[in-house]
Amino acid sequence: EELGIKELLPAYLKPNLEASDLVSGVCFASGGSGYDPLTSIIESSIPLSGQLGMFKEYIGKLKGVVGENRANFILANSLFVLASGGSDISNTYRTRSLLYDLPAYSHLLLNSASSFLTELNKLGARRIAVFSAPPVGCLPFQRTMGGGIANRCAERPNNLAQLFNTNLKKELLSLNRNFPNSRNVFIDIYTPLLDIILNYQNYGYKVGDTGCCGTGRIEVAILCNSFDSTCPNVHDYFSSYRKCLQKAHRSYSSKISVPIQVSNGFLTNKASNLWVALSGLFPSSLPSSLLIHFMLLLFNVCKTRALVKLPPNLTVPALLVFGDSIMDTGNNNNNLATTARCNYPPYGKDFMGGNNPTGRFSNGKVPSDLVVEELGIKEFLPAYLDPNLQPSELATGVCFASGGAGYDPLTSQTSSAISLSGQLDLFKEYIGKLRRLVGEDKTNFIVANSLYIMEIYGLGARRIAVFSIPPIGCVPFQRTAAGGIERKIAVKINEAAQLFNTKLSKELNSLNHNFPNGRMIYIDVYNPILDIILNYQKYGYKVGDRGCCGTGTIEVVLLCNHFTPLCPNDLEYVFWDSFHPTESVYKRLITSIAGKYLKQFL
């Protein structure tokens, strides 16, 4: 609006978006997203990677509207704005603080920001304004949570924001050296925002430590609704982001000596000071068409909770998974010979928006999905045999696992599942498809640098994570079948699992000696799952010995169907059916083991 382009910036996903809007700017932002991929994943918002995907799609549409030359011209001369990090600091870090101290988490955010901006530069962006993280600790919600009785600004979130901002500013200088034709400019909003909050009366506000909605201390998103009372005059409350942006100008105006030409006029003092502040991005004059891509992932306290910090020298381009029903994401769906299928309700009750049975043996996502999420590769891992699998998915990973498979070939034969040897055959077929898609060299890179869950060194795998056997004797079905009247844990089955795990760990050490260029890592899932089952109340669950489906004692696969009653709240249960944990448990498991083991792939 200040640039005189148009009154509102439309959302890119707006159903009735006009083609003409593409030429003058759109918004890819998603509330609740952040630099930490899990900030978006947990809240089902569009992550930065997804927004880049939409931007790539946008480029194709723009070329269709104005032609390739004009589209390239628009992209090269547009203003791109990125603002993120607030949700990560405000919400996600509280959970991640057990694994990361402030410098480590700041580095995690910085790596994500750098990767995003690098990709944006490669896609043709040349003028990018990157907003700093705001003083999150001074938000009313953070004051309430961490400001004590006096409701002061919470120091820890602000310290994290300042640390991140210092590192971000340095990183942008590095990016400018790597992309000499681009201008990646750091926009400090921390300082002006903090000044407005602390000295709100100087700016004409009457209240600076509470919000206008409800009590102003905790209300946000759903808690701020049509039933909440609001303050008589919103202008009395610190809520004007624009004033903050105008204040931000003062840090940069001294650098500006030439007005910015926009269309047929000049962007002078009549325009918002922010845009004058951004003039460092442009030469003395601009082309007649200025496009603003607001990738505003603004600090937004609407979202909560929990990425794994990948070391700088660790690249994981894809995840390839082999195994059984714990990992299967739908490969058995069209295998009519097996009963080990669950592509029907109530399976998938909470997957991707709910009531979406995809063949995953849980109410939602399974470890395959959660690992690929933790790595920041994509939101879920598709089944290799999914008839709707897109070729582009091959480059970032697929799942070959089949419910009912096992190390013993007879296990797969009995259940008519895809055996491990059959899964290896699918992997060989996958390599052929990948070569045709991305070429020999890129295929070799993907195969050598991907993270595998099973053993396939001979086919080129170099990073292989092998999960231990879980405490099978604790699953509800085994308690019912072998735990006696009291349904105790089936000890002999757990002992067999422990014996196998001990030998597996030693065997992987031996394989690492024989194959020094590989990293075959034993992942202990037995103990963390056992701890959740035995101490379920400590983790916030109410039921640990029965599943949510039916009686919870025997129902699995065909016995757990759309005629079977469900528990009122699966978040209170460790198990979904009589064999498989709920998505909630899987999330706890993957989050706990990811930070512990990923560093071993260095």
Automatic annotation (TrEMBL):
GO terms for biological process: lipid metabolic process. It holds the Pfam family Lipase_GDSL. One of its GO terms (molecular function) is lipase activity. GO terms for cellular component: extracellular region. PROSITE patterns: LIPASE_GDSL_SER. Belongs to the 'GDSL' lipolytic enzyme family. This is GDSL esterase/lipase EXL1. The lineage of its organism: Eukaryota, Viridiplantae, Streptophyta, Embryophyta, Tracheophyta.
